[in-house]
Write the structure tokens for this entry.
Amino acid sequence: MITGYSDHAANERTYLAWVRTGIAVIAFGFVIEKFNLFMLTVTGAALGQALPPAQLAHLSGQFGRYDGLVLVLGGAALVVLATARFVRTTRLLDDPQAHQAKTGRLELILCGWLVVVVASYSLYLAFA
């Protein structure tokens, strides 16, 4: 029998939920990036001419060039941080000494970052 099995199982479930969220953010970043390229191609085809890269970059706007990349990198960072937290929590669970609970500042920062990114992209889509 594994000592503290339910604690280890809960830690693993939490880790897998964070990894799943990170993968979803990465996938959303790829979708945004590909959709942006698709819209630029459709715009160029609708005008009946091949647009030069400078004009395509102007159509995509300042935010349109980096939004997908930011989400991909943010999702990757989320997976890395989830892995570090999982390893730290596993070590703390295996340690026989009692430890005090830490506040979830990192999680609040990540959630706040995600809210800011989603809100800014929503505003970009609403007013572009």
In short: The mean pLDDT is 80. The longest helix spans residues 5-46.
